[in-house]
Write a structure and sequence with these properties.
Blueprint lengths: L31 H8 L3 H19 L5 E6 L6 H5 L7 E6 L9
Length: 105
């Protein structure tokens, strides 16, 4: 399921629909294109996303090819509506598989 729209509180909903046991619940697996489409709604947000994409390109250039990233913080909230400001960063937690060429210590 792509990233759902913000709920009336300005947050990503914990689940979509009336059934809390649905598979459509947080965390929402999404492609970068889906994240950009749903959360890249202002010039400031798009700049933060460009920075995230550059970070991901840097990881790829260092040989990281698989893993998962969780995006959190004010970037996944409607802070423009709730606090009358733009998000200042994107909180990212990455779990990556080390490249084969990188020795494990």
């Amino acid at each position: 399921m792509p990233v759902p729209p913000f709920d009336m509180r300005g947050l990503l909903p914990p689940f979509v629909g009336a059934d809390a046991t649905t598979q459509d619940r947080s965390p929402y697996p999404a492609t970068m294109a889906e994240v950009v489409t749903q959360l890249g709604t202002t010039p400031q947000r798009r700049q933060l996303l460009r920075n995230l994409i550059a970070y991901r390109a840097l990881l790829a250039s260092d040989g990281y090819q698989s893993g998962i990233q969780f995006i959190d913080g004010s970037f996944v909230e409607n802070v423009e509506g709730a606090a009358n400001r733009s998000p200042s960063d994107i909180d990212v937690f990455s779990i990556l598989s080390a490249p084969r060429s990188m020795p494990l210590t």
